[in-house]
Amino acid sequence: MQLSNMYQEVILDHYKTPRGKGLQSPFGGEAHHVNPTCGDEITVRVLLSDDGKFIKKISYDSTGCSISQASASIMFEQVDGKSLDDFNKSSDEFLAMMQSKGNFEPNEDLLGDGISMIGVAQYPARIKCALLSWMAAKDAIIRANGDK
Length: 148
Ligand code: ZN
Prior knowledge:
Shape: globular
Radius of gyration: 14 Å
Number of helices: 5
Strand content: 15-25%
Bound molecules: zinc ion
Number of domains: 1
Distance between the termini: 44 Å
Strand order of the largest sheet: 1-2-3
Order of helices and strands: HEEEHHHH
Largest sheet: 3 strands, antiparallel
Structural class: alpha+beta
CATH class: Alpha Beta
CATH topology: Sufe protein. Chain: A
Number of strands: 3
């Protein structure tokens, strides 16, 4: 994969020093997602606020390739402690970027270090790696909301 050097460094940094890795309790919803084509796996736990509008705590544990691991770390950094509205905006922006084939002006406010993944959008085989943590988080939130 040919990613720009600057972005590659950001991805490698998250891969080598993952933010927020390690499952935490208590939690309201949990989801386990697998990307069989690459062998990536992630479990995401979410604890919502009492009114269901904020992510009080998100935590995860994951194994797999550098893209999937870095993406989970970036996702954590971007959404932990945020409102569900903010989560949905960031998640939608990330999905749109991944489906853009790299032809996209990413919103850094919504994506944070996630903008470093834009080059990955040119590699269809790796898009699922980048999306895995976001999809698992979305599922965990749905399950946490189902408890309300
Ligand atoms: Zn992967």
